[in-house]
């Protein structure tokens, strides 16, 4: 219980403060004066509090009554940010399961994701500087998105459709000071990744959700929990029958190759797919992609410019130093760094994993 | 009384002066319009770009605007972004921290509407100057993309996976890859532009139906390239006309960081690589010290292509005629494999210089030029050489053993290609 409270302090706070366990998330402690309501407009309100989904209390995110937390097997790396994700469906509605695409959510669905940077990555109870909460909501069949940036006191977040760049320092795993130029994306910048013929959420897909979450009252598989709440229809009764992307950070969840490919999917594939913003590169990084050229094996870059680092191929089997993908993952120079947005410091664990995968590949390039 | 009246006149004059200086960039623009002026925050400007509605105009006032993040333009159809003039409105990205491009508009391929950029400069972006993905109807007019210092982005004006692309009267100066780059697109007009100090001045890549004319390409590493590369969603570039361009003195050292253009020798007028149906005519191609114009296969790059679906690495139906060539090939690039090849053969070639027009001579086994149709004629006194690269390994990589100056097999004409319209 101690370790679980250390890992999920935000949830722990919610449990302690919750009055009863009847609501999906075990309740929240936000001001009782509001309850979430289904949005009806494509325009988001000017303040986050108007959503009545999440707030900050005692340095962490607290959920309103009826709002459910979730997380993903392999998340996007966002400058070491911790992320608190929530889902809320209008009463009496449910989403329809899909084995590969984002679930088909009903109108009125609200998803939130709050981003905070820790002061010290070595601490088990770091101070989290909450930067923004992104809200996605569905109205008349279409998704909309808006980021809200938190004031210094953490009492309110205001709509920031133009985005901004925030400079924040932290101590990394080695105790060294790093400075992130954290990007709050503009409303349109969100669409660079969240675009599949219209804006779509990325996370709520079977293969990312198919894992246990430490709910109040005990851990449970997220697909099962969503189904038992009546929020998800059509999911397999046994989660083992649903797809699951391995957790890149957990060696027990897959081979190096499976985990590296999971990492590349979560961090790259929403642009690097034939229909994505980086489709023109011909590089496709879905974990399910089997075509070696599409995966970058011995594939020359098209428009990498400085990003190629003078290297010839995206992936040279057996040679991580000769491969462009880890080179770009290891850079923070805007012209070189990949992903192009959302990362201003290096993710050493991600780089190491992808390098390990490439080092273990058999073959060579001309 | 009198004093009050006089002061009244004065204040009226002040009001009038004030209203002059208070004129908004949007004044006189019909329809939805957002003014962007000096003094607005970056977030406000980014918001204007992000939320521009369909058929609206963003008018940029005079001055230099600084950005730390890419500007991501709304996908709504029919947006115009207009400045006060190429040298009056400058969007400067040298302090960029996030995103790589200057301006990007991204739509699913085929789903984007039209978009117009005109009358401003995008300067010192870490990535591309202006990038548009997936639009139908891209106009870039009197635009400048420019790099002034050590920061160099790959492409200046960069529509990719678009159709109905018009780029005219614009300037790109200093791109590390291609100044003007149109990739994987269809129906393209690139005219009356100036490309200077880029690795490639103008590049049409994996594209269909392009007219490139009236442009000046000078002091680039290479002037105008028509390329087709493997492993992309759209391959098989065809129907490209390059005509009435000034392609001179493209002798800038190659400063590409990688990619196919890094293989291009300094001093190259132009290349056609692995396209079919290309017509090159009416151009003035002079003073390019490695060579004037080359027709090559992708095989000559030595890079893999074999399993790229539908990809043909060989050029065919390329017609080079009625161009003016002079003073090309006088000093091939010794720091580049292609250039070195030319240099090695330099002394054996007649006239003390490399021929103006070069063909790598790589064809499918047994194919004749009646089938391939590389046609070169009526180019004045321009020299022509077939390098017969395919035979090189058999003769110990001695180009002097394979090169042929026999123009007869290539002295043929092809039907003119149709003009591009949309």
End-to-end separation of chain B: 68 Å
Query: Low-confidence parts of chain B, pLDDT < 50 over ≥5 residues?
Result: 1-20
Q: Would you count the extended β strands of chain B for me? A: 31
Coarse shape of chain A: globular
**Total domain modules of chain A:** 2
The proportion of residues in beta strands of chain B is: 35-45%
Overall average residue pLDDT of chain B: 89
**Structural Rg of chain B:** 24 Å
Q: Count every helix of chain B, treating DSSP H or I runs of 4 or more residues as helices.
A: 5
Shape, principal axes of CA atoms of chain B: elongated
Multimerization state: heterodimer
Most extensive protein-chain contact, per-chain counts? A-B, 51 and 63 residues
Q: Output the radius of gyration of chain A.
A: 20 Å
- Quick one: biggest sheet of chain B? 20 strands, parallel
Give a brief description.
The complex is a heterodimer of chains A (about 375) and B (about 425). Chain A has 8 helices and 14 strands.
Task: Report on this structure.
The complex is a heterodimer of chains A (366) and B (422). Helix content of chain A is 18%, strand content 22%. By secondary structure, chain A is an alpha+beta fold. In chain A, helix 6 (256-269) crosses helix 8. Chain A is globular and about 65 Å long. Chain B has 2 domains: 24-175, Single-stranded right-handed beta-helix, Pectin lyase-like (Pectate Lyase C-like), CATH 2.160.20.10; 228-422, no CATH class. By secondary structure, chain B is mainly beta. The relative contact order of chain B is 0.07. Chain B has helices at residues 2-21, 42-50, 337-346, 369-372, 399-402; strands at residues 33-36, 57-60, 63-66, 69-72, 79-82, 89-92, 98-106, 115-123, 130-133, 136-146, 155-160, 163-168, 171-173, 178-183, 186-191, 194-196, 200-205, 208-213, 216-218, 222-227, 238-243, 246-248, 268-273, 276-281, 284-286, 291-296, 316-321, 324-326, 357-359, 374-377, 384-386. In chain B, the strands form 2 sheets. Chain B has a 20-stranded parallel beta sheet that branches. In chain B, strands 4-7-9-11-14-17-20-23-26-29-31 form an 11-stranded parallel beta sheet. Chain B is built from 5 helices and 31 strands.
